[in-house]
């Protein structure tokens, strides 16, 4: 080993010793290092606390190995802020993120979905964690979720069919037409919630949804009275052929078709 190599080795060893012995303030300087071995050594410093970890975890250039080391060495005593910071870091491995998500609060999971730079895997995992909690989520929180959550979460809320939640979901800018269609064709739609969709200025004019409403045997008669005269004859025939209509609905459709005559 030449003198230059020896000097670099000695310098590196000195930095690692400094990392082990640094005090509270010095640690804040050392966590800015790009040297992975030095950052790993910092984790063994007894003066390292949550403030240092939170500052470190704000970095987006950390290697996976370092994030794994933070989790492995401290997982038994990770504070909630550190757990949240680990989950938010886009480099945190997926298996670690999934293991930590149950520790997050409901609306922390929602916020995670919208953080700039969040990976698709992180967003999907957060959505699944939210959806798993829906059966035990209080009504007030569901109403807030309907306003704030992602399209996938709002669609799951809509499927539950609770009238106040359905109303909130229908006003969500993230709700998709496909989710409304599935709800209208599903088992949880009832006369009241179907009418909520039918009265909605956003959804009532969509042809596919109108037909889905008119094909539901629980749809109140008033929507047949209002909408049948405006439907194309081809749609009237399609409705008449549907097996989902109740007898009264079928008679209303048949009557409308007779009014139009043979043509």
Query: Into which percent range does the helicity of residues fall?
Result: 55-70%
Structural class, by secondary structure, is: mainly alpha
Order of helices and strands: HHHHHHHHHHHHHHHHHH
- Number of continuous helical runs: 18
Instruction: Determine the strand fraction and express it as a percent band.
Output: under 5%
Uncertain parts: 3-8
Arithmetic mean pLDDT: 92
- The overall strand count is 0
Q: Termini separation (Å)?
A: 99 Å
- Global Rg: 29 Å
Q: What is the global morphology?
A: rod-shaped
Task: Characterize the biggest β-sheet.
Answer: none
Q: How does the SSE layout of this entry go?
A:
Layout: H1 3-21, H2 24-30, H3 36-42, H4 50-57, H5 64-74, H6 80-88, H7 94-100, H8 106-113, H9 120-133, H10 139-148, H11 151-160, H12 163-170, H13 177-184, H14 191-199, H15 207-214, H16 221-227, H17 233-240, H18 247-259
Helix pairs in contact: 1-3, 4-6, 6-7, 8-9, 9-11, 10-11, 10-12, 11-12, 11-13, 12-14, 13-15, 17-18
């Amino acid at each position: 080993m030449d003198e230059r190599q020896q000097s670099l080795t000695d310098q590196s060893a000195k930095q690692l010793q400094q990392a082990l012995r640094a005090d509270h303030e010095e640690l804040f300087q050392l966590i800015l290092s790009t040297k992975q071995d030095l950052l790993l050594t910092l984790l063994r410093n007894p003066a390292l606390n949550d403030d240092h970890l939170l500052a470190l975890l704000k970095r987006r250039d950390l290697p996976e190995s370092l994030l794994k080391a933070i989790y492995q060495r401290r997982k038994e005593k990770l504070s909630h802020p550190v757990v949240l910071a680990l989950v938010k870091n886009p480099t945190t491995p997926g298996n670690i993120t999934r293991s930590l998500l149950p520790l997050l609060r409901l609306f922390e999971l929602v916020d995670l979905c919208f953080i700039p730079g969040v990976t698709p895997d992180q967003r999907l995992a957060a959505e699944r964690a939210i959806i798993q909690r829906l059966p035990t989520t209080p009504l007030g929180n569901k109403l807030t979720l309907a306003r704030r959550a992602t399209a996938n979460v709002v669609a799951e809320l809509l499927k539950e069919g609770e009238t106040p939640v359905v109303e909130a979901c229908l006003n969500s800018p993230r709700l998709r037409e496909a989710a409304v269609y599935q709800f209208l064709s599903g088992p949880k739609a009832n006369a009241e919630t179907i009418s909520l969709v039918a009265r909605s200025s956003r959804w009532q004019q969509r042809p596919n949804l109108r037909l889905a409403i008119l094909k539901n045997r629980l749809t109140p008669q008033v929507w047949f009275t209002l909408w049948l005269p405006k439907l194309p004859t081809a749609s009237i025939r399609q409705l008449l052929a549907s097996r989902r209509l109740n007898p009264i609905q079928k008679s209303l459709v048949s009557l409308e078709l007779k009014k139009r005559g043979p043509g």
